[in-house]
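quick one
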Amino acid sequence: MTRPEVIVIGLGAVGSATAWQLARRGVKVLGIDRWHPPHAMGSTHGETRITRTAIGEGEQFVPLVRRSDEIWAELEERNGPLGLRCGALIIGAEGGSTVMHGRPGFVAGTVAAAQAFGVPYEVLTAAECRRRFPAFHPADSDLVYYEPGAGMLFPERCVVAQLDAAREAGAMLRTGEQMLRYENISGGVRITTDKGVYEAAEAVLAAGAWSPGFAPTALARTSVTRQLLHWLQPQHPALFEAGRCPVYIWAHGPTSDDSFYGFPLVPGAEANGVKIADEQFLNPIDDPDHVNRDSSDAETDALHADHLDGRLSGLGRTALRRATCLYTSTADAGFILDRLPGTDAITLVSACSGHGFKHSAAVGEQVALMVHEGRRTPPEGFSPAAA
Ligand SMILES: Cc1cc2nc3c(=O)[nH]c(=O)nc-3n(C[C@H](O)[C@H](O)[C@H](O)COP(=O)(O)OP(=O)(O)OC[C@H]3O[C@@H](n4cnc5c(N)ncnc54)[C@H](O)[C@@H]3O)c2cc1C
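structure w/ flavin-adenine dinucleotide:
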């Protein structure tokens, strides 16, 4: 490839979307990733991600997820299903006032977003929820929101689809190659990797949990935390089949750590069990290369004791499998998209905060538009980097 116009660092959820969206606009793109996406080292693995339209983290995210849905649908025409619309239950204790992703009143906020944007939804009584979805045992005082058009995305398939589309549109993708540093040079940026040196007019830093290490001041508001996914065997699999069991988020206490979420059995992969996780925001990690990727039965015991017992029916006490994953979060669950302060040649994007996947296709498009059109300020709904 002759000199690229834009180098995208990181080809996970956001970077794969960015590389494709730039390449389809005729931009000469070089994409670089230190591993071979999709892989299990970052934030985009584990087979499933929840997608929903009424976004309790903030109504500004609703247009973003709607645009992502259009992009997923476009990709599905060529790639087959990238997800499954099996509905979503969002349950909140104390009338929905409980916290999720740092948002107090998350469930009540979800209802408000659905009303504001005309998203089809139902508010169920706890008894109605127990009858329609018998795996779930909400308390009578819980607020139960049901969104029939929500469901799950298959993140690894989404990444592959976007990387394939990027290649077809002319992008050069180099995987198994690690960026070591970037420098501003006259008229652009120089990227040094463990395999070579590249120059371009611009670069996009989409390195997920590794981005704060490359831009510590600009991303000072982010923190990286270890998350653990558990796959459990249901005693009565029929209760957890997609159709009888939606995806779900359950916020049952006063802090962000008092919540869990999960998925039905994935059709065709029933033997894997059901995936369930809580969220950990304490103990941020300094270096994602040194996160503890081991896990123990004691952590699955704690998931049962802290979250599942009394709320979900008949799940095996022992995990069939566990996986660690990384959140890169801002306190307000917002997404940072901005030029790196001090240089126009590098654009930073940090889309995670535990709810970024469903938005990532549209986030990549916004990054591409910002770079392609030479915009200097974050698009509406995104947060600036710290100066
Ligand atoms: C456990 C878990 C559950 C989640 N659940 C949901 C959910 O249900 N719904 C939802 O919408 N969102 C969810 N999210 C959030 C969502 O998955 C993330 O926001 C999204 O996947 C982040 O994508 P990313 O591109 O920023 O990071 P990644 O996909 O991790 O990509 C970063 C890439 O950068 C590469 N890289 C890093 N350093 C370098 C370097 N020096 N040189 C070259 N390449 C480099 C990495 O190899 C990696 O491929 C969840 C996240 C986690 C961890």
